[in-house]
Each structure stands twice: as C-alpha cells, then as structure tokens.
Amino acid sequence: MVSQAKIKSWVIQFLRDQKYGDYQIEFNGKPGKDAGYMSDINFLTVKCAHSNEEKILHIILKHDYFQQRETIKNAFIIETLMYHTVLPTFRSFELRKNVDDVFDSAPKYFYSLQDQNTQVILIENVTNKGYKMHDRRRALDMDHCKLILREYGKLHALSLAFRDQHPEEFRDLCRRFPNIHAIFAAQKDMQEYVESRIEEMVNVLKINGDVELSVRLQAELEDGFKIEDDEIRAVDEQYVICHGDNWNNNYMFKYSANLFRITAAKSPIQ
Fold this sequence. Notes:
InterPro entries: CHK_kinase-like (IPR015897), EcKL (IPR004119), Kinase-like_dom_sf (IPR011009). It holds the Pfam family EcKL. The chain has helices at 4-17, 70-96, 142-165, 167-175, 180-185, 188-207, 211-223, 229-235, and strands at residues 21-27, 40-50, 53-63, 109-114, 119-124, 132-133, 240-242, 251-253, 257-258, 264-266. By secondary structure, the chain is an alpha+beta fold.
C-alpha cells in the first residue's frame, strides 16, 4: 500500500510545477471497494494560492504504483493522452468552428507524471459539483442511456469532423494510442472468458432455434478470439476516437460527465 506521504509528494510536485503556493493538503478518503479496478484512487482537497488568488482544488489522484502489468501501464498512457492532448485538441477545434454545444463531459485535467515505478493522474473530483455515480448493481434506465449516447454522439461527431478536416493530425493522434483491446485479448484469462461467453451465446441461439446464426458464431469461436484492429482501420472510414469502456462505474451523472479510462481509435459501433 502506498503511504500518504508518497501520495502527498506527487501532489506537491504538481503544485510546484504549476506555480501554486501556500498550500494545505487534506486527504478525504477513497472510493468503495468496487471502484478502481486498474488503479488506486484517492480523494484530496488542496487549499492554495495561485496568481495572488486563493484556490480550493478538489482532486482525484489515481496511480498504479509498482503495478507492472502491461494492461495497466497502457491504460494510464491512454488516459493521460486523452486528457492532456486529445480533448484539448478537440476543444480548440470546436472554438475555431464556433461550436455552441461543445463536448464537455470530462472532468478537468490537472496533471500527470510517470517514472519507472508508477504513473499518476490528477483530475477534478466533480462530486463537489453534484455529480454522482449510478449504482453499478442496477441496470441503467432509458434516460441514463440516452444521456450517455448523446454525449458519445458528440464525441464521435467531433472526432469524425476533426478527422475529415485535419486528417494528418488525426492520424498522428491515433498512432499514439496503444492497442489496449488487443493487449487484453492476448491475455489467456481474457481469451478464456470471452470464449466462454461466446459458447453461452451459441447455446442460447440453439435453444431459441436460430441454428444458422449459432453455426456462424461457433465458426468464429473455432477461429479463436482475436481483435483485428489494423484490418478494421484499413477498411472502416468511420473509425473515431471513442470512450471504449462503457459500464456504470465509468460515468457520473448530473447531466453527464465521462471519466475516460480505456480509449482507442475504433469504429463507433464497437
């Protein structure tokens, strides 16, 4: 377990780099056990001064200290890239185009750092603005789903427009993303999990009398579970930069605020 002193040192590095002074750091605990599967999450409040103004920063600090798994490392690379580079690039594009209804469903990004032992991301804790997580044990109702899909639609449309008008810059952004889905797929336990789910679907189709579809799905299973990302990019002219991890713990609701965790260049339908 990482000590509070270590976590505090990361916050101090952020404050010093960003020219905050006269700071006081308060720890506000952690989320429940069912959050943060790929990182350790801490809530902090920082009282400080910046440009002769008093500030109060509500911070979520996430880190993967000494977790050397390839998937976790790449997830942090992706999340940092999304907050630090992609979203600011998209926002500048929206401003140049005088977009009124901008994509604004991600928390404020403060800082990130990495060394040989850890990767750290600091973002705004939006619970102080009234956002709440949906109970992950309950299915999302239609209103929640519509909110999420509306924001996804904005992000995908923005990505398509940027790709159309700045193709080289868009390709450069996409090249920076590790193919985390392929990394997940290469893991033996993930392959076994997905194949077992496919077997269940094959059996359900057979029980329901849809023999033709069950045979086609069985053929996919026999070929082995794989993600042909390069092939998708080669033939799909609609691929975009998207969220990539659509489940309850990755959303907070007031209107809709997405916490990006696994992001990749993919078709919107994937």
